Amino acid sequence: MTSTRGGLGDELVDIATRLAREAGDMALAGRKRGLNEVSTKTSRTDMVTEYDKASESLIFAGLRTLRPLDSIVGEEGASHVGSNDITWFIDPIDGTSNFLYDIPMWAVSIGARENGEAIAGAVYIAAAGEMFAATRGGGARLNDSPIGCNLDARLDTALIATGFSYAPESRPVQARRVANMIGHIRDIRRFGAAAVDMCYVACGRLDGYFEENLHEWDIAAGDLIAREAGCLTGDFRGGPIRPVETMTASPAIFEALGRLIVESTVADQQ
Ligand code: 2AM
Ligand code: CA
Questions:
Q1: Is the CB of 222 inside a 6 Å radius of any atom of ligand 1?
Q2: So where are the chain's domains?
Q3: 48 lines ligand 1 (CB under 6 A)
Q4: Is 223 considered catalytic here?
Q5: Among 88, 113, 179, 259, which one is most buried in terms of CB atoms within 10 A?
Q6: Is the pLDDT assigned to residue 3 strictly greater than 70?
Q7: Which tens digits make up the pLDDT trace of 143-159?
Q8: Which CATH number is 8-146 given?
């Protein structure tokens, strides 16, 4: 049977949710038993565990079996160059520091793009049993119920999440920016998992989120889920979302939040 455009999104989101749940439940069970292998990647605080690798292997194997012609890019190195126009982006554990410290704010994130445009995505917060999912044009869901962002947000009462880079030299600049912003909003949250933050904006648990220096696999699923929930996503100055500069917010505060971020940013004084 030839899939229609909508049909393809449904097929891909079914695969994404199934594999995200399987991988997340496996990692959660493993975390409860304890970790044996913990090492660092790009900096002394950028961590990887055996479950980042096991989760990615499980998802990669599933995608290769179910979607043999698709391309695959994974954070831990999984890679396949396919022969059609679908590419999958896997973050096998988003929020690895939380996973390491046994804080429940981590997720498996799987997003699919067709010719570069998001078509399906799933973010599974295993410790909470929460599956966020979306298809292009089909809306966003949390555990099969439709979700929407907080359309009544105001900047001066907005709850905003952010993250700080793993690169030590970027962190003081980012911290000063937050210090400058914090008197103009309700408060700041720093949960430590980009995909979770984007899904939280999507379901109205946050009013906005911004972060720098991410990667495609961090945002591929969360961006679609947020947009399908009625959020706007982009960079800080009204351009398209980019992993190096990511903002997700209720349309009611999107522009004002971008302005506040830009105005609050002061270059490193050293
Ligand atoms: P990870 O847990 O998969 O590494 C933390 O601020 C969030 O940003 C997490 O989602 C983390 O993903 C992600 N992240 C990805 N690259 C990052 C980087 N270079 N610096 C900081 N956080 C990064
Ligand atoms: Ca990760």
A1: no
A2: 8-146, 155-269
A3: no
A4: no
A5: 88
A6: no
A7: 999 999 999 999 999 99
A8: 3.30.540.10
User: Is 96 a catalytic site residue?
Assistant: yes
Q: How far is CA 215 from CA 30, 159, 218, in A?
A: 26, 24, 5
Looking at ligand 1, which atom is closest to the CA of residue 106?
Answer: 2
**What is the pTM for the complete model shown?**
0.95
Q: Is 193 in the pocket of ligand 1 (CB under 6 A)?
A: yes
Instruction: Tell me, yes or no, if 235 is annotated catalytic.
Output: no
State in Å: Cα 207 to ligand 2 middle: 24
Q: Which fold has domain 155-269?
A: D-Maltodextrin-Binding Protein; domain 2 (3.40.190)
Q: How far apart are CA 11 and CA 264, in angstroms?
A: 43
Q: Is 93 known to be catalytic?
A: yes
